[in-house]
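Entry: FAD dependent oxidoreductase
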Amino acid sequence: MTDARNGRHDVVVVGGGTAGMSAAVSAARTGAKVTLIERYGFLGGAAANSLVLAYCGFFQKGPQQVVAVRGVGEQFLNILASVGQDVSPVVSRSGNRIILLDPEAVKFAGDRLVDEGGVSVLLHSRVTGATVDDGRITSVIVTDHAGSFEISANAFVDASGEATLAALAGADMTVDSVADHPVQPASMPVRIGGVAPGIEFDRDRMADLIAAHNRTSETPIPRGDGGVMFRLPISADYWWMTIDLVTDGLTGADLGAAERQARREAWRNLGILRKLPGFEKAYIVATGPQIGIRETRRPKSREDLTGKALEQGQRRDDGIGRAAWPMEVHDAPGRARFIDIGGEGFADIPPGALQAADIDNLYLAGRAAGADSMAYGSSRVMGTAFATGQAAGVMAALNVDRLRGSEAIRRELEAQNALI
């Protein structure tokens, strides 16, 4: 594999989460020379760095198990299965099907996915600058512990979550949220060990304990029913998500303050959890390197996915992927609502949602993809990010826009076994 720090590249992908991995692999499948840049020392995105250990969006909601994402996403699940992780979906309390994850398996699967795909990878690396000429990005500045260097490419994919590349390139940005605060709250999932097999989470008893705590505490627990609690594959640890906090998700001061508060709450919550029968010896196995961010900013796209399209389950001839997860909107800490998808149970994602409005060779995936305030609650999830990532990678490799290249994009996606 060539040194990613040298030479010219066809496609540079920023962000090594589900969207970024998928974009890099799909671009490389076209024969493109691809480099993937990730700031952590591992791939996997929120599942690995924030312990958001559930893939949402792989399946439609309903009584039957209907797949909504294939292609690179399916390949990733196959790798997980090959190392012994059960990837069978489970039905959550919201009635949606999710795939629970082991974070170490996710990291390993990410390495295998990009290695098998022929992608050059730069870990421990941040994009810290971008050069734009005549409406196109010509190069990015990458910084690691050794210093800064420049990488040039024909096209770029922003799969960074926080739209870092788009912001550095001066793209027109938006914060279009329906939350009570500027953006939807973040969550700090916690991995819990020390609970014997067969011990079930007593939700009614936990709700009583939380209610007692909330009557006198200055820092109440917003999820009064105890939040999300599942046994994880491989380890059989419990995955517990009941900490929600408001943060801008961008500035070190605000994000760091939220994470410090989240850790304090995790240890406080552990004391409450230990009052449940069978949980007396429970302990915190891990929290993620960062809190789980739902929303910060995103670039304006050439055609947003809309809440109206999702409510109607709109189909379109140029669709590049399926948005099947309900519009999950977190209005405030502990307060979430789901709005189901209409029609056949999914809506087609427009190719224009994956191209920045004002930079011709900047493509968008995952949380950076274009969506209005309601549709964002569906498109941001990790299962769907595999689909937007795969399509954005193909678009970047072909270096075409939504109008000139929709047929070529769809042909390549079909050849890669994507579901469109």
